[in-house]
Amino acid sequence: MTMRLRDGVSSAETDYGTMLLDEDSGRYWNLNPTAALVLHTLLEGGTPDQAAHQLSERYAVEAAAAGRDVRELLDELRSAGLVEGGGAP
Fold first, then answer.
1. Cα Rg for the chain, rounded, in angstroms?
2. CATH code given to domain 4-80
3. What is the DSSP letter of 88?
4. What is the pLDDT of residues 16-61, one digit of tens each?
5. pTM recorded for the entire structure
6. Is the separation of the CB atoms in 73 and 11 below 8 Å?
7. Do 48 and 42 meet the contact criterion of CB atoms below 8 Å apart?
8. Which end of the chain is more exposed for a tag (fewer CB within 10 A), N or C?
9. Residue 60: which residues within 8 A CB-CB, separation 6 or more?
């Protein structure tokens, strides 16, 4: 199952990355360009490994560090209730 934003969560691109708004709580999150790249890869059907690879390629991040960063971001997005699906991180 592809990851998607939960109903009631909207996104907007900014000059600084991606903004997520939880319309139910009124809370928002500003994702920097690296986090935005990961989120967009996952929302387009990519796997966490593919997102880590994209991060590593585009920003010259070590593969192991990119994998940890992707897992941390996924944990935070899920804990905040912003995303659904996507299988295991």
1. 12
2. 1.10.10
3. -
4. 999 999 999 999 999 999 999 999 999 999 999 999 999 999 998 9
5. 0.90
6. no
7. yes
8. N
9. none
